[in-house]
Amino acid sequence: MFYVLKLVVVVMITIPAALLTILGGLFDPHGKHVYGISRLWSSSILKISGISLRITGLSQIDPKQRYIFMVNHQSNIDIPVLIQGLRPFQLRWLAKKELLWVPLFGWAMWAAKHITVKRTGRSDALQSLKKAKQRIASGISLVFFPEGTRSPDGRLLPFKRGGFWLALQTQTPVVPITIHGSGALLPKGDWRIRRGEIHITVGEPLLADDYRSGKLLALSNQVRSTIAKQLETAASFSQPARPDNTPILAENSSMEKANEPRHKWNH
Fold first, then answer.
1. What CATH class does 2-266 carry?
2. What is the pLDDT of residues 26-85, one digit of tens each?
């Protein structure tokens, strides 16, 4: 019953947030103003769900710079986690074009100027590349889940190369981001959001200049190796996910400085 109540509250927050995004997006060419709604929505979702974040490595990236973030994918909660964890940045996702037909969710994606791509079709891929370049040029960072789908057990799946190809085409630095713990709090195929802590590790930016044409596989392998090592490190220090009837020791404020120290779209 407790899980059902949380789900109802999440839906009640999501619907007006989506409607406001859709209305505001009509007058927002890059979605920069309506992105504030996404920040508010994601913060509310995490607080209602009882999820806190622990972030390391944030000081390695510059909020004034734009990046292509490569992130492992364990759960549907990863999106609000990233919006809050990378709060200084304007983020846009690349997603399947079919999602635009999902009521409210897909319409809000369009209004916020996320980038959609059809999995087949060269002309559509080129159009998506053009939009991606426009977003980057306007100071927006892009997020890719190179696995293409959520991992059912937390282990890394094979990487697709579309995001890495875009990084080379636009000469945009690539940042490996590792999310650990989200799969335990909202597993794939489950709707019950559990309380707990999620750890985000920000890796060192990789300059696209160091990976010229023909080095696409090397860049992909380097990012995958970095995320795999960070997952292994995080797992060695992690504790089991806490059930809903136990207190959370870390709050969202732990996000602050205390912890800082053929077309290729389809491959």
1. alpha beta
2. 999 889 999 999 999 999 999 999 999 999 999 999 999 999 999 999 999 999 999 999
For residue 267, is pLDDT > 90?
A: no
Domain spans of the chain? 2-266
What is the pTM (predicted TM-score) of this model?
Answer: 0.84
- Dihedral, CA of residue 116, residue 120, residue 124 and residue 125, to nearest 10: 80
Measured CA distances, 24 to 21, 39, 94, 149, 154 (Å):
5, 15, 21, 30, 36
